[in-house]
Design a protein that fits this description.
A: alpha+beta, Penicillin-binding protein 2a (Domain 2), Beta-lactamase, five-stranded antiparallel sheet, 24 helices, elongated, disordered N terminus
């Protein structure tokens, strides 16, 4: 044994003869090793099962979040255009500048000063904004892209930008009440922006992509959800006529020191609203100092007592029911009529007038005598069919219905005052729309603020004969003998009616007036209706014929020319009598 | 025999693998190009909107009227200074 071990040490031994093997080890030791190995494998298998089988979803998500990104694809808000496709409102991309206050405050003072200058802010204001506990503040919304570029170049730590849209209104205050405006989130707040919010807005899309280390997009991993841009909206408004109406109305407001004024121009053939102006107005691009009075859309949302502009409907109803003809004489002397305890009077006593002259001279007494021959229900039906007391179907936010009380509660005095437009309230758009009955030979079509495609369905209200007869009377009313000779237009025959009414202040008639004029032209084949309303003219004049009629004349002359309507009158120099008939109130 | 088949298959496999690499590369390259073109389209759309807006701003009636009156000394026409031509009239 000793010699064998010596030999092994000398030239190596066979494995089987290795002396180590000869050592007897306890059996449990190999068992332990075997068990440990098995346990190790089992742990690995379990872990693999856990990762691959049970938590795979979580892990894949974690993985994806390290390379996959969901990108929002913003939809652009639709443009608003006028009837000729000229842009009235359009969205352009801008950026919101935000900051992480803590990081920004570490920047050198001069950089912050420069940043404040670029943001057009006071340095102190900027510092005040940054001096907060919040981890994220917007410094300024809707910053234009060239300014953003400069800000990015400044390289101030903690400053970031976010893409958003800003709405631009090239026509500013001229179109303000029609188009309305959106807020910083590009959501409609007023006007057509609000009315058509749904179709203008569009829906954002999204896509999931893989980005590489440098932030470049490598590929799409899911199908892309494309953004649907908002639909463009073509309005019925004619930009040129809108401007004509705006400048004429502005001139009148300045001249008569009026509190407010409104005008609307309608297309007789299609029912489209060609212009709609309210004063005072505002600039939708800069709404920092906006008051309620400026926001008010008087054409749609303000009601007033229409006054004499209602008289043609009473006359028309009397003609339609064959109670009178245009030549039937009516005694209006002595210029007063007493019903119950109330007395209705004319501004000037006129004596014996024909029905046509009652309208021409705007006699309250004459109209009252006609109205008392009519049933309350007939009058109520008439008012309702031409749209008074009915919500206009324009889809415009805030359009009011006005007020015509139910005929069952009418007392005779009320029926009389309503016949000349008192004791009922209407908006200007309703008055303008109601005159369509005379401008269109007795039928009416609905109004629209969108560019009309198909022919509207018309509804007959009066016979053609009555409508034409009243139209003739209205032409006389706007003539040299009527209450509104200043409404005349060189080259065109016009028809229309003035209205003047006291304003109600706390339920009492005050010494404040609303002057109005509603008319249409050219009489031979009416094309446009123009309705003007001036609220509280306070420069000495307050009759509709003096305040509102000249606006009508100016707008009609220019609008008809803009529409290429050929003249139907050879009269080119208008003679305005020095002392025209003043209408009755 | 089987050694030769294996060799052919190995070569085919390597070629396939290389073509996959190539195809992937081409796909990425084209994708980047597409991406760039789409961004350009988007930018052009924005430019178009901007130009339309500029046109609308410059064609503002208030501006045209002011320019016509002030710089060009123009006045609005009136019917008595207008010659109307009627079609078909002799």
């Amino acid at each position: 044994m000793r010699s064998a071990s010596r030999t092994a040490a000398g030239k190596g031994v066979q494995f089987s003869e290795s002396p180590v093997l000869a050592v007897k080890l306890p059996v449990w030791r190999s068992r332990v090793v075997l068990f440990a190995l098995f346990a190790g494998f089992a742990t690995l298998a379990g872990r693999a099962l856990w990762l691959q089988g049970l938590s795979t979803e979580f892990l894949q998500k974690q993985g994806a979040s390290r390379y996959a990104r969901t990108l929002e694809l913003p939809a652009t808000r639709g443009k608003i255009t006028d009837r000729n496709g000229q842009v009235l409102a359009s969205s352009l991309p801008v950026k919101a500048v935000w900051a992480i206050p803590e990081d920004v405050l570490e920047a050198p003072a001069e950089k912050i000063r420069e940043l404040a200058k670029l943001l057009e802010m006071n340095e102190q204001d900027l510092r005040k904004k940054l001096d907060s506990d919040r981890t994220f503040v917007y410094l300024k919304r809707q910053v234009e892209l060239d300014v953003v570029d400069k800000i990015t170049k400044l390289n101030v730590p903690g400053i970031g930008t976010r893409r958003e849209y800003k709405r631009y209104y090239p026509d500013g205050d001229v179109m303000a009440h029609v188009v309305g405006f959106t807020n910083v989130e590009d959501v409609g707040q007023e006007g057509m922006e609000l009315a058509f919010q749904k179709s203008l807005a569009g829906t954002n899309g999204s896509r999931r992509v893989i980005k590489d280390r440098l932030g470049r997009i490598v590929e799409d991993i899911e199908s892309v959800r494309l953004p649907h841009d908002g639909k463009d909206l073509a309005l019925s408004i004619d930009r040129k006529i809108q401007y004509i109406a705006f400048s004429a109305l502005k001139e009148a407001v300045d001249k008569h020191k009026a509190k407010a004024a409104a005008i609307t121009v309608l297309d007789v053939k299609t029912g489209e609203v060609l212009a709609l102006v309210n004063l005072p107005t505002y600039n939708p691009n800069d709404r920092t100092r906006l008051t309620g009075a400026q926001l008010r859309n008087r054409v749609m949302t303000d009601t007033f007592e229409p006054g004499s502009t209602m008289k043609p409907f009473t006359v028309a109803l009397a003609l339609e029911n064959r109670l009178v003809t245009p030549n039937t004489p009516i005694q209006t002397a002595p210029g007063r009529i007493t019903i119950g305890r109330a007395t209705i009077g004319d501004a000037h006593p006129h004596g014996l007038l024909s029905v046509a002259q009652v309208l021409e001279k705007s006699s309250n007494v004459g109209t009252t005598k006609l109205a008392l021959q009519l049933e309350p229900q007939q009058m109520w039906d008439m008012f309702t069919t031409v749209g008074f007391g009915q919500q206009p179907k324009l889809g415009f936010p805030g359009a009011v219905a006005g007020r015509v009380r139910p005929y069952k509660s009418w007392r005779p005095i009320e029926q009389a005052t309503m016949s000349y437009g008192h004791g009922i309230s209407t908006s200007l758009i309703q008055v303008a729309h109601s005159y369509m009955v005379f401008a269109r030979d007795g039928d009416m079509i609905p109004l629209t603020l969108q560019k009309a495609g198909d022919r509207p369905i018309s509804q007959r209200v009066l016979s053609e004969k009555t409508a034409r007869a009243v139209r003739q009377m209205l032409e006389a009313a706007a003539g040299p003998e009527g209450t509104a000779p200043k409404a005349q237009v060189p080259g065109y025959r016009v028809a229309g009616k003035t209205g003047t009414s006291h304003k109600l202040v706390n339920g009492q008639y005050a010494n404040k007036y609303v002057s109005s004029f509603v008319g249409f032209a050219p009489v031979s084949d009416p094309r446009i209706i123009v309705a003007v309303m001036v609220d509280e003219p306070s420069n000495g004049f307050h009759y509709g014929g003096q305040v509102a009629a000249p606006v009508f004349s100016a707008v009609t002359a220019n609008a008809l020319r803009a529409l290429n309507v050929s003249p139907d009158s050879t009269v080119t120099d208008i003679i305005v009598p020095q002392n025209a008939v003043e209408e009755s109130m | 025999m089987s050694g030769r088949v294996n060799l052919v298959l190995t070569i085919a496999l390597v070629l396939c693998a290389l073509s996959v690499v190539n195809a992937q590369y081409q796909a990425r390259r084209l994708f980047i190009e597409l991406e760039r073109a789409q961004a350009a389209a988007k930018q052009l759309e924005i430019d178009w909107a901007q130009l339309q807006l500029d046109q609308s701003t410059l064609a503002k009636h208030a501006r045209i009227e002011a320019n016509a009156r002030r710089d060009l000394n123009m006045v609005p026409t009136t019917p008595e200074r207008t010659q109307y031509l009627t079609m078909g009239a002799s």
